[in-house]
Structures are given as structure tokens and as C-alpha cells.
Amino acid sequence: MQDFNSMNIQMVDLKGQYEKIKNQVDNAIQEVVHSTAFINGPQVNKFTEEFSKYLDVNYVVTCANGTDALQIAFMALDLQPGDEVIVPCFTYVATAEVIALLKLKPVMVEVDPDTFNITAEIFEKAITPKTRAVVPVHLFGQCVDMEKLMLVADKHGIFVVEDTAQAIGSDYTFSDGTVKKAGTIGHIGCTSFFPSKNLGCYGDGGAIYTNDLLLGSKIKKIANHGQAKKYYHELVGVNSRLDTIQAAVLNVKLKYLDEYVKARQNVAKAYDEGLDKISWLQIPVRQVNSTHVFHQYTLKIDKTVNREQLRDYLEKKGIPTMVYYPVALHLQQAFRTEEFGKGDYPVSEALCEAVLSLPMHTEMSREQIDYIILAIKLF
Ligand SMILES: Cc1ncc(COP(=O)(O)O)c(C=O)c1O
User: Fold this and answer.
1) DSSP letters along 136-161, please?
2) 3-class secondary-structure state, position 14
3) Which end of the chain is more exposed for a tag (fewer CB within 10 A), N or C?
4) In this structure, are residues 27 and 251 in contact, taking their beta carbons and an 8 Å threshold?
């Protein structure tokens, strides 16, 4: 095998991506610095408009990060303490954290063992008279089967808050052929512009989107100290803003988002072709009706193989890997209750033991991909 030092394989290559758009990004940042409009500068409005067009959604409110986006979304829904919100057990902590923070009750549910996403059936089974909302998390870059999920939600009068932090750019196709972007199907969509996300800025950032006028204006107020007019506070809100510098970076990067998605899909295709025949792993299973934007390329490793040994072996060959996520939410100390313990969410628990994400980013070369495939084949 080749000398891996020359490969410089990384999980995410933000530097390589920056180099290609350096002039545009540097100019955009300089413009903000020269104007000193660091807060709510015109770049924020511009991004809000461009992003609404990209998503084809009526209202976009930018905010400080994806976790705030979820918190603000839930504040806008006027839920009462103890109201139940259904969330997947296998997700990033932020999804459930804000629910607990607002004194709502996160009700954890299993995910589909192949797509890693919740399903309409799983959701429906968990509904009780106290259920007020559900959070479909479009994990790793593909949408939950939203058409079915929305039917169940509508039938029971339940709010749908999509967590699309990992799936910006993903398209969902309805049975009548209508195509919608991830996050624009439920009542509210939330996303993150964390640097490594598919549309990442150079610090923290997030956004909330909706087609509902009342929710849109309420979300906008909540993100801005509960005010529409300066110093007149109608609601208890928060201070959560997207910095102008981050908006300036996003204005440049939004133009490349579809190209970035394509690059990720090409890496995934090459991995698929190279790894498909290996009996002890499962390549990512595609969700019906959704495109996959591959925020992560996540394998499932068979029990017959020691995943940690595989990770060590790959690391020695200069191939980083990550486990998203090592602990299911119900087993996290912060969410432990008397009600649930080990064994209560067998699918999520098994996934935590089995998943392995490979390097995935817009700058990967064919040489790097082939090297990774060969290394895995030789394990
Ligand atoms: C599924 C999911 N939800 C929410 C978040 C929170 O986003 P942020 O880190 O911007 O707060 C993330 C970020 O990693 C995420 O992956």
C-alpha cells in the first residue's frame, strides 16, 4: 500500500474547501470588517433572502446555532411543562436537550436499523394524549419518510419540527411528484451552519424556517428578545443572532451548496462500489423518496468484527474514522430516568455498537477514496 503520510486524509477538509473560494470569502469578510456592521449587517438579510429562495420556504430566521434554532422553534409552539415531544433515541444530543431544557418531556423512540431514521409507524406507536410534537431528525443527510409521518401528525394534531442540521440540500419527493427540501415539510425546520455541516460557516450559525406566517413572525421575535420593535418586548425571548461575518461567508458558500452536495454524493458512490461486496459491513441504506446529501457516510459493522480493532487498524494507516453516536440518548447520564435503562432501546443501542463513519467531504480525491477502500478490504 501507498505511503499514507502523503495522503493527508481527514474526516473533513475545511482548509481545502476554503482554498478554492479564498478570494471570495476573504473579500466578503473584509467588507464586513470595513463596514463595522458586525451585528445585523445587510449580509444577514441577503443570506436570509437567498436561503429562503434556495429552500423555497416563506420565512427564514437566522440565529446563533442549530441548538438555539431548535430551542426557539419549541418556544414558539407554546407547549406546556410536561407536554410530550417524540424524539429519536439515536441522534445528536441537541435534539432532545432543548426539549428537556424547556421542561417538556422528551419521549425517545427507536429508529429504523437500516436508515437510522424514525418512521411513521414508530412515531404513531409512541403517541399518547400528552404528545404535542415530534422531531424527525434527518440523520446523516437523508430525509425521514415525511409524507407518511405528516399524515400521522396531521391525524393526531401534532406539531412537526424537522431537525435538518445534517440534511441541508436534501430533497424529499412526495407520491404526487412534488419535491420539497428537507426542513420545509413540517411546521418548522431547524438547521445548523456549524463549520463541518454541508453548508457550514466559519464559526457558529443556525436557522429556523417555516411556511406559517404566524409562526414565522413569532420565531423572529423570540430570537430577538421577544421584540418586533426595539425596546418593546411582547414575549420572553432570547438573544440568538447569526453574526454578519458568518452571513457573509454563507452568502459565498450557498452558491456552491449543490456542487458540494454532488461532490459528497460522488464520494459515497465510489465508497458504495468499493465496499458493497464486503460481507462484514453494510453500506448506507437509502431512504425511499429522499436524496442523500451524505453529511456522514456511515457503515454498519457486523458483530463478528471488532469495530475498535478496525478503527485502530485504519488509524495506523492514516485513515480517521468517527462513531456517531457512541451512546444512545436514554443511556446518557443527562437523560437517565428510572423508567428506562440498558436493553430498553435495543435497536439504538446496537447501532451505537455498530456504526462507523468514514472520511466524507467535498475535497476527497479518487486516490484517497481508493486507498481507504483497499485498506478496509485488506482488514
Ligand atoms: C442533528 C443535529 N441537531 C442539532 C445540532 C446542533 O447544531 P449546533 O451545533 O449548531 O448547535 C447538530 C449539530 O451537530 C446536529 O447534528
Assistant:
1) -B-GGGB---HHHHHHHHHHHT-EEE
2) helix
3) N
4) no
pLDDT for position 4: 67
Report the candidate in 99, 95, 284, 58 with the shortest Cα–Cα distance to residue 191: 95
- Which atom from ligand 1 is nearest to the alpha carbon of 204? 10
Ligand 1, pocket-test mutation among 111, 137, 170, 194, most atoms within 8 A of CB: 194
Average pLDDT, the chain: 97
Ligand 1 lining (C-beta closer than 6 Å): 65-67, 91-92, 94-95, 137, 163, 165-166, 192, 194, 204, 206
pLDDT value, residue 2: 61
- Measure 280 CA to ligand 1 centroid, in angstroms: 30
Quote the pTM value: 0.97
Quickly list DSSP for 272-288: HHHHTT-TTEEPPPPPT
pLDDT tens profile 341-373: 999 999 999 999 999 999 999 999 999 999 999
Q: 317 φ, ψ to 5°?
A: -95, 10
**Distance between CA atoms of 34 and 23, rounded to whole angstroms?**
16
pLDDT at 1: 58
Residue type, 362: T
pLDDT tier, 334 (very low <50, low <70, confident <90, very high otherwise): very high
> Can you give the pLDDT at residue 7?
83
Instruction: Collect all residues with Cβ–Cβ distance below 8 Å to 274 and sequence separation of at least 6.
Output: 369, 370, 373, 376, 377
